[in-house]
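Incident review: delayed structure delivery

Summary: a single-chain prediction request sat in the queue longer than the usual turnaround. Root cause was a stuck worker, restarted by the on-call engineer. No data loss occurred. The affected request and its eventual output are reproduced below so the record is complete for anyone auditing the incident later.

Affected input:
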Amino acid sequence: MNKVRWEEILAVSARLFREKGFTATTMEDIAAELYITKPALYYYIKTKHDLLYEICESAINRLIEGVQQIKDLHSAPEDRLRDLVRLHVSMFSENGDIITVYLADESELPAEKRDFIRSRSREYEAMYREILAQGMTEGVFRDLDVHMAVRAISGMCNWLSSWYRPDGQMGVDEIADIFVDLILNGCRTRPEGKRQATAKRRTKPSGAKTGAKNKAKTD
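Output delivered after worker restart:
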């Protein structure tokens, strides 16, 4: 199979699925956009669902390959988390159509293929959990509900599919800087003084001021 042609088929299919929606896009649409006949397209792929599966697998494979590179490059949890967030965000500029279709249309896959893609997604999320757990063990990150923290981070990054535009006011690097700042500062261990101040604010009684207001209302 011609690799360049195959990558073009995936790119064009992902763009059309994103623009028109998976259900509304036909194999005829894809063939026309590629300037080939429908039988020629069937030489490469048999069904539209097979195309969707290849797009989803391509997206998650790129994420997992990036994760492995980060693991090989860094050992410190802060560095790993920083690079992982940047990888996640950069996917929307480098592979925007593919990652967006993966997030939006993965549920359209047949059950067996959908389950496989979701198992691969869990492998990717496991890297986030591993980083947070490592940081907590080393005292770099405060005590966190790891599963909820991973959901929050993934949700923040994945929501880019709804609003990120390459020609928008902020570039992907600027967005990544903001996300990294929010996430790292949310995870880092807090100095003792700040922890005590936060605890006092949370446990501080409502005080006489509220009582005075209530008394004034009843006088």
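Verification: Residues 57-191 form a domain with the Tetracycline Repressor; domain 2 fold (CATH 1.10.357.10).
Action items: add queue-age alerting; document worker restart procedure.
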